[in-house]
Amino acid sequence: MFCVILAKKINFYPAKRVKLTLVAGARPNFMKIAPIIRAIRQAQKQRTDLSYRLVHTGQHYDEKLSHIFFDELAIPAPDANLGVGSGSQAEQTARIMISFEKELLEHPADLVVVVGDVNSTMACTIVAKKLNTAVAHVEGGIRSFDMGMPEEINRMVTDSIADYFFTTSEVANANLLKSGVEASRIFFVGNTMIDTLVHNLHRTKQPAIWMERSLEPQRYLLLTLHRPSNVDDAERLMSLLAEIEEAAGELPVIFPAHPRTRKVLAQCGWEGKNIYLIEPLSYLEFIYLVKHCRGVVTDSGGVQEETTFLHVPCLTLRQNTERPETIALGTNVLIGDDLVLLRESIGKIIRGEWKTGAIPPLWDGKTAERIIEAMLTIPL
Ligand code: UD1
To answer: pTM for the complete prediction?
Structure first.
């Protein structure tokens, strides 16, 4: 089934020097790229003909959305930082494309590796393909089928022109096959986000809010919201927060908020009673809170995966998910716009009436090793 198995059997290593360019741009990319770099470094011990260049597009640039992840996850300093910063969808995408074209012309690669579904993923894929460079998409094939999400457009464009796909689920494999991708270009390898989780689970850090609010294991909820559809409309955001606060009752709700969300809350002068708004957390601090909480309410993609792996209840404030295995197998439930369902579900979580779920296939902490093993069988 799919190429990864073939790769293991053939164990074919091309003799020529292989140059990879790895692209990372925004917060969730860093967790996906860290284990890939670790696996490359491991492979380099046997193969001196394998090299990589790490390019940070600079889509995220804040200490708390970018630098801290490099420190905590021991990601080497990028070889290039394109410093593109924020802007409208078109401005940001265009700036990434212009800068990455220069980068790739100056430093040609045999294979550009993109991860996830952010603007940097799509922009760098387009540039690489127009320079006739092969592209591998880590986390290829997932679909929300919601064209209102910029990420869905990024996924569709990336997958329509990328050459190789490293996938997290059978559903992703099926999506790619249905869109006409040959099975030989699909490598079902598992989830690099879970590699990072497995690798760091023993070294999570208690964040300051733990002592400040005298938190106790299982005696708080964790909330994250940053999707434009949930936070850009202040009225919608207020009604979501009011409902969560009401349903949580006595339990404190810890809310590390993305700058986009903080901006809207500051503009409308929101103050929580039982919801504690804090700055974005580092990876090790955030996972500490996920590990110990009663349940999570979120609109993030990665958090749906992390809660499933940790068997922590998860309510997703979206109409759809590109990670359906977290619902079918894991601990996730989609809430959509249904405030009654939101309230009832928080009640169930508090009463301990939630599914414990199972871990999806190949989410075992060894995905990046499989990626490198498979990648080295690609004729570049
Ligand atoms: C991006 C990704 C999203 C991912 C999220 C994780 C796209 C289309 N979206 O969304 O898939 O879930 O990252 O955080 O690529 N800002 C800062 N500091 C920063 C970066 C951004 O303050 O370092 C603020 C700026 O005001 C900016 C806004 O956040 O306009 C949005 O940033 P942007 O990179 O456009 O998208 P995200 O919402 O972060």
So the answer is: 0.95
